[in-house]
Amino acid sequence: MDTGVAIKMNKTLADITQDFNRLDIVPSKIDDILQKACPCAENGNESISSMYNFMHQVFNARLAQDLKKIFAKLNVQHEVVEGNSRLDIRLLNDYQNRVTVGGKNLVVIDMKTGNVKLYQLCLYSVRNQCPTIIVELLSGDVHLLTPEIACKILTNLPSEIEKITEMKSLKATLPGQDCRFCAKECKDRIAKYTPYKVSSTSFAERALKLETNYNKVKERIQEIIRPMVDESTAKAANEMKEAKNVRVSVSPMAAGIQIAPAIKI
Ligand code: SF4
Ligand SMILES: [Mn+2]
Questions:
Q1: Residue in 18, 19, 51, 14 with CA at minimum distance from that of residue 157
Q2: Domain spans, the chain
């Protein structure tokens, strides 16, 4: 099968970005596709309640505000739409009110109040060419994903996705656990796996866990970002110093600049 995606052992960030652009896939769907055995499975009941979305919005906004308070000089962006994705939080090192140092992405943060999606976040890291911090507020865990690791994780996935797409086009099904979460009208469904319904009784319990874990998670994020900010600030200061030295050491004559003689009145 010609996958159309060149298999390269050592792909660069640009290669991976290009591969996924060619697939034209929404980053949040990559994990959905790859975690199912049945190529024809369809997601159902995704918008069963606005409560999950609400909790995500609340904690994401709170984290963005807290990070702005902690790292006041950084450009903290919240819910940034970029192409076919929306980043929860992004920090840039174009120090506001001071000087623009290229405005490079420092870190992307993804807040999860439900299940983690690893591949989506790998793609964020690759596209933004910076680390991604994954916040699992439900468990209180915080993970750091570097673009180099993300690049390695994603390397073979475009061809895997194309294989699944081809199986889907052949209408090949793999009945099993996936039927439980599948909304498709399907003759192959295993009868005992009727579509799953999310229980509404877990909301209060979940909201309480998120609230309890928030401060712990915030501390951990701060610990991870602080060295990145320090390193980037030191680099910026160095660049400014070097730029100043160059200006001082180059005399106007050496630089070919003609100075008009002073006019005596
Ligand atoms: S019902 Fe089961 S077998 Fe049919 S498409 Fe869905 S997951 Fe596949
Ligand atoms: Mn999120």
A1: 19
A2: 13-221
What are 13-45's pLDDT values in tens digits?
Answer: 999 999 999 998 899 899 999 999 999 999 875
Q: Could you tell me if 163 and 1 are in contact, meaning their C-beta atoms sit under 8 angstroms apart?
A: yes
Residues 16/154, Cβ–Cβ less than 8 Å: yes
Report the distance separating Cα 133 and Cα 226, nearest Å: 13
CA of 196 to the centre of ligand 2 (A): 23
What is the pTM assigned to this prediction?
0.79
User: Position 125: which residue type?
Assistant: S
Find the 112 Cα to ligand 2 centroid distance in Å: 5
Backbone torsion region of residue 263, taken as left when φ is above 0, otherwise alpha when ψ lies between -120 and 50, otherwise beta: beta
Whose C-alpha lies nearest to ligand 1, atom 3?
175
Query: Are 150 and 123 within 8 A, CB to CB?
Result: yes
Alpha-carbon span 239 to 13, nearest angstrom: 26
Cα distance between residue 19 and residue 87, in whole Å:
20
Going by C-alpha positions, the residue among 151, 116, 158 that lies closest to residue 134 is 116
H/E stretch holding 36 = none
Q: Which atom of ligand 1 is nearest to the CA of 183?
A: 6
